[in-house]
Design brief:
The chain contains seven helices and 23 strands. The protein has 455 residues and is an alpha+beta fold. The strands form three sheets. Strands 1, 2, 3, 4, 5, 6, 7, 8 and 9 form a nine-stranded antiparallel β-sheet that branches. Strands 10, 11, 12, 20, 21, 22 and 23 form a seven-stranded mixed β-sheet that branches. The two termini are 45 Å apart. 48% of the residues are buried.
Length: 455
Amino acid sequence: MRLKTFRTKLRTLLLIAVTVLALTGGLLLSWPERAGAAGAAGAAGTAGTAADPVISRGKPATASSTESSSLGAKNAFDGDTATRWASAEGKDPQWIRVDLGSPATVSRVRLTWEAAYAKAYRVEISADGAAWTTLAGEAAGNGGTDDWTGLSGKGRYLRVYGTARGTSYGYSLFEAEVYGTVDGGPQPGGAFSVVAAGDIAAQCTASDSGCAHPKTAALAQRLNPRFYLTMGDNQYDDARLSDYRAYYDKSWGAFKAKTRPVPGNHETYDPAGSLAGYKSYFGSIAFPQGKSWYSYDEGNWHFIALDSNSFDQAAQIDWLKADLAANGKKCVAAYWHHPLFSSGGHGNDPVSKPVWKILYAAKADLVLNGHDHHYERFAPQDPEGRATADGIVEIVGGMGGAEPYPIEQVQPNSQKRISGPYGVLKLDFTDTGYGWSYVGTDGQVKDTGPTYSCH
């Protein structure tokens, strides 16, 4: 424990040292077509306005090694500077590579190093992942950000091949961004992230150290997704408008305009009428199509927001069938409050089964729920709870701020359960699939789910 603490402190000091050196510019090299840490902002300002987009985000990635399961290669290509890839410590050489999906012309590579940086490395490209051509090389790196512009290389695979570490640790990248154009096909632009949680605002504020929803809100804001989802029970106990204003609005309300909510059972308890406070607070954000259920598209994904308090209403069921029939997107995600499958205190809720049957028949990919105050992920399964490769993945994400519920009866196909640490789901979507992490309010990844392709 003492050694680990010492190493953590040493790594922090190294990061500070690298930052100071980068700011002073004292050790930066004068490489043509490369901006080091001090010049990165200027390079990004010019190259970032060019036509070539990022073509690596969300693409499959592999590495020679990883320090731990939470520091995998995909973290360097997820667009999130709060995550990173880290290799095993004390060993050279090490590499990380990304599969761009099809042949591409690469014009720029931008590397954002953690404190464990590469002193010497090569940026290489390959058509087949076997024979590699060097695009750029560094012999005296000092960490920070290396922005290689003016490149000209063709291939499907790109890798960063480290030959000498800058510290006694390994190699670690917050982000590796590859810019260019995909040959003979449309530009990839469908990668995006979403933050989601349910069961959020207890009647407390940040002045109470035990109040969780301001902490999950701060985490959600730091993750800076394309938009936010809530899976119901957004405000406790009766979801009155006055409570929304006094509690939810002081935390998750900071990004209300980017939120796409659904109601839970607590939204129906309002003495002013079922969903009255919910509707007054969110307005057209929660009722964009005039009902408490709606749908929208993002990238190659079709999202369906449902009101599980009204699954017995033919109007919603008929709308869902028509919406799915009209959908032209490859990937489908749906979210509502009551989970069909749960190992928590509420357990399985059969109210959702008819909706599952409709979604399963439409080859939907992902379902997100709240209600039980824990995190849980399930293997793909059908509406009867039978594991199947063409099934729907369900995630329960009810740890947004309400008091945790214990795990009671573990259900078949449940792969991971966490009760206690508050947090949010960070979901990463691409044009062809998705993956996610459960991130605690301490900023640590508590679980990372598998990466799935859309049906």
